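Re-running the complex after MR caught last week's input typo. The corrected sequence lines follow. Everything else is unchanged.
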Amino acid sequence: MNDVVELINRVQNAYARCIDSGKLEEWPDFFEENCIYKITTADNFAQGLEAGVIFANSRGMLLDRVASLREANIYERHVYRHFLGQPWIVSEDANEAKSETSFFVARIMRDGTTEVYATGRYIDVYKLNGGAPKLKERIVVCDSSRFDTLLALPL
Amino acid sequence: MNDVVELINRVQNAYARCIDSGKLEEWPDFFEENCIYKITTADNFAQGLEAGVIFANSRGMLLDRVASLREANIYERHVYRHFLGQPWIVSEDANEAKSETSFFVARIMRDGTTEVYATGRYIDVYKLNGGAPKLKERIVVCDSSRFDTLLALPL
Amino acid sequence: MNDVVELINRVQNAYARCIDSGKLEEWPDFFEENCIYKITTADNFAQGLEAGVIFANSRGMLLDRVASLREANIYERHVYRHFLGQPWIVSEDANEAKSETSFFVARIMRDGTTEVYATGRYIDVYKLNGGAPKLKERIVVCDSSRFDTLLALPL
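Corrected-run output:
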């Protein structure tokens, strides 16, 4: 198998486990210090609109976000379950890989209700770091343009 | 890893990307010139009933279908997001592989509604073409027998 | 690729196929003679509560369960479709592997309705048996605490 596919598969599995098990504080560790994290819609992305629903350009901003989520106590009210397709390698060299991966996230509310929360694709740039890839950029492109007000949570 | 699993994983990932990104015109390229493409239900399939909801026996028929979908302008009203399981290799030789793969397709309407659109399995015959597999036969067996009238879109 | 990931991927694919195609009688064969099979909720699991919705501690008990499901004729009324994430290897040695895998199960009723039935994770201990792994322990931890009364069916 393509080694990069395997590498990214593994790190994305860890990323999903981190969020799905509620270990939000560890989530920023999947990113480089200087990074882009953005959540946007397929419509906006297709039109080249820069604005995202969520935007961060450093790991510090991601940490801040986690802190405010904890304060707001929003996260405790529900959990996520991520499902990821195989990553599609758009390009790669020794240091960096660009990939795209379909995601599907189910949300399970405290009352037990389970629903399809979001589908879409990750458009990623990974710094490979000799086998310990971290995200230099993750643009989360959601298929739907209807957003839940809770979308501030990591996808 | 079994090389055929990897090969089919990759081509099926490309197949899903093609449809999910709306590049319908490229979809017939995943098939051999002489091919079978059929959508049917698990009930009909189990009873050996030949009739499918959709049937095509050449790449040309698939192209025709895409053309009429474009004309009817149906496709623009919603998008799909495919999720595929690992292919199960039923048999393989140097030229051909038979495989089965579970699929789950979410449909996202223009108003933002997301729903489970279809689940089922692909029953496939791939011509391997020395590493560039194409579908000789794809029977899409949907678990549900309740069909949306829009099912004419590729699965 | 990690050989154990590949091995477990393959056997879990077979496990899902077995249930999704209704071959319930073959399901206990995925387990060791002496085994634990338990279905529980994330809440109970997090609190260390031992009681599960379903509990079996031998392959014989799994066979008994299948027999009573057949008698009750429940299974015929609907089908499942499983989707599994990549297994996460928690630990492994030459004889045994511990892994965790996210699952998503859609349920398709006889009237055609399809719904998200359950999401969660398998917490597994596999005896590797020199390349033919069997489950020594499977704890099915469902994200939701709201259970359908039909949950007696295998997950």
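None of the earlier attempt is carried over here. Chain C has a mean pLDDT of 89. Chain C touches chain B through 23 residues (CB under 8 Å).
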